[in-house]
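Pilot study result, target chain (222 residues):
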Amino acid sequence: MTKPGTRQSDTAYERLRELVIHGALKPGALIEEAAEMERLGVGRTPLREALQRLAHEDLIEVVPRRGYFVTTISAAEMFQIFEARLAMEIQAARLAAERATPEALAAQRALLDEARAGIAADNRDPAWNLAIDERFHGLIAAASGNRYLAANLTRFYGLSVRTLYLSKIPITLVKDEIANFVAVFDAIASGDPDRAERAMRRHLEFDPMVMIGIVPRQSVEA
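Predicted structure:
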């Protein structure tokens, strides 16, 4: 059910984004508008607004006179997505270390408190763990003070996490990443761009072969 004050198109966007990223809507699949309107409880106009937003994020492709399709992704595109995202995440961390406001730092501390509480409760729900990680990156992007960078990081976060699901790679639990979260936030709070960059690199370190399912591994950082 849509929360009071929430636009139907926003609700549809969030739900469809989740379905595409998690692989419930498969690459190349046609979006059946009538079925999605029923599933999401929205009208045609809010649904199409949501689909257009997802098209801007390269998760949906609009094909004239045919409809909306979930985008496909190749191994080469996976490499490019992670290369681009790593460069932007590093820049965001460096800028955040230079520009973070007291309010931004307070939000970061609050997220760490929430993450630690979840760890203490042994929360292994993939959705919760992924949401904490996405909020971690979102807070850094917001603290960078560059809204264009933040918008692109939202887009590339979705694309990169989608590759994990399509490659059948388990999402890393927050308990295994909390030290990296702390290291990045501490560097930002200290106003140290170089240390923030190093900490972000450690968090996002990955083996490209794992990303495309060639080399097995227990888990990969989101």
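One observation from the pilot: The first helix runs from residue 8 to 21. A full batch analysis is planned for the follow-on phase.
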